[in-house]
Write a structure and sequence with these properties.
The protein is mainly beta. Helices cover 4% and strands 39% of the residues.
């Protein structure tokens, strides 16, 4: 069932992310299996159909946990109690930073893991791969496994709609049914207009890979499974890697690294496992008007979100309201209608339109996805009393309400 009311609020602990400028992040060893994206290795390019380009991103995984991670996709040779659905799925995304806005411009379907090579690589764990008891049906402690771009772009891929991103559960075999008539179907699909140098002067681009795995999620290790890397776009729309992979960080986390006036925070839904959103904000002012740019990223929340509100303590004149999303494609069942905005005397709200023919497939902000919201206001950030994310899937809380610290955060750059 969908959330039908917004009657309850939960004030969440908002965790500030004070990010340095290190090229590569390495987190602590966590208990249980813990799959991370160790490297974004290469880019596959499949050409264009109808002004849309198809890409794929190579991902090398690393198990930084203290137990092997299941990598089983068959009924034989698996660890006890494991099923063919006990393996990771891999998503691939693309982002653009342009004119003070970081937005997602491309998303792929999912590559289902099917065997692990258990390689050794410096920087994964202590640099020693501990061979797992069940060979390629597991990713051993300190072991890596390369899935090149050709593998991650090999169709058929799996639907994101089949995966519970918080628990890692999904049906197996995947349901299939993905469109494949174009070069970009199921793959990382990006419009040429979002990439051309003429239309995007000065823009910077980033690709992101993320793993979801059942035993990783159950162990509570699902918050470090995304990594990003910068790419450059040449005249023929080929992408080239630039710099190092930034490990265990989502692409949205590059924004405050590049622009220190951006505030970025974690907004968590408590539970086991924790479900996380990232909320980033940039505020600029000119002539007594403040321009607000928000990016909201759903890292792993299966509850998803279908509403975002910004509320001021006093009446404000609000204009220039805008919204940007990245559309589902290739027969993914989700609606692609833009969220609808509404302005009141003291705030602004965006909400996903109802999808009467299939309510569960309305255009919610789902996992591994970022939506953008912006507006102008006659009031500064110190006058904002609350931010609200309405949760799409029924449950408690029905919405999350988080307040930022007072002050002009566009000057402070952090809180």
């Amino acid at each position: 069932m969908l959330v039908q009311s917004r009657l309850r609020r939960l004030r969440l602990f908002v965790v500030p992310l004070l990010l340095g400028v290190a090229a590569i992040f390495s987190g602590p060893v966590l208990a249980g299996p813990d799959v991370t994206v160790f490297n974004l290795s290469d880019i596959g390019h499949y050409g264009a159909t109808g002004g849309v380009r198809g890409y794929s991103v190579g991902t090398t995984s690393c198990n930084i946990g203290d137990k092997p991670l299941n990598w089983c996709n068959s009924a034989t040779g698996c660890p006890p109690l494991a099923t063919p659905a006990d393996h990771p799925v891999i998503s691939q995304n693309m982002y653009r930073l342009k004119n003070g806005r970081l937005d997602q411009i491309g998303a792929s379907w999912l590559k289902h893991g099917f065997v692990s090579l258990n390689n050794t690589a410096s920087g994964c764990g202590n640099g020693t791969c501990v061979s797992p008891p069940f060979g390629g049906k597991q990713l051993g402690i300190g072991c890596t496994d390369p899935y090149g771009s050709s593998l991650n772009g090999s169709r058929p891929l799996g639907r994101k709609s089949e995966v519970n991103s918080s628990t890692g559960a999904f049906p197996f075999p995947p349901g299939g049914g993905g469109a494949s008539s174009t070069t970009w179907n199921q793959r990382l699909a990006v419009a040429e207009t979002d990439l051309s140098a003429a239309s995007n002067p000065g823009a910077r681009y980033f690709v992101e890979g993320q793993y979801i795995a059942p035993d990783d999620a159950v162990a509570g290790n699902g918050l470090n499974n995304a990594s990003y890397r910068e790419v450059t776009v040449n005249a023929s729309f080929t992408l080239s890697m630039s710099g190092a992979t930034v490990r265990e960080r989502s692409a949205i986390e590059v924004w405050p690294l590049i622009d220190p006036t951006v505030t970025l925070m974690n907004v968590d839904i408590a539970g086991a496992p924790v479900e996380r959103f990232h909320v980033a904000r940039k505020v600029t002012s000119s002539g007594g008007v403040w321009h607000y740019e928000y990016a909201v990223h759903n890292l792993n929340s299966n509850r998803a979100a279908d509403e975002f509100r910004v509320e001021f303590a006093n009446p404000a004149t609000i204009t220039g309201v805008g919204f940007h999303d990245v559309d589902a494609h290739s027969n993914e069942p989700y609606d692609t209608a833009d969220w609808v905005s509404s302005v009141s005397a003291t705030g602004v709200q965006w909400a996903a339109p109802p999808f009467p023919t299939s309510p569960q497939n309305a255009n919610a902000l789902r996992w591994s996805t970022t939506y953008n919201f912006w507006f102008d206001s006659t009031l500064p950030p110190a006058q904002i009393s609350s931010h609200v994310l309405g949760l799409f899937v029924d449950g408690a809380p029905a919405q999350v309400d988080f307040a930022l610290s007072t002050g002009d955060l566009f000057q402070n750059g952090y809180e």
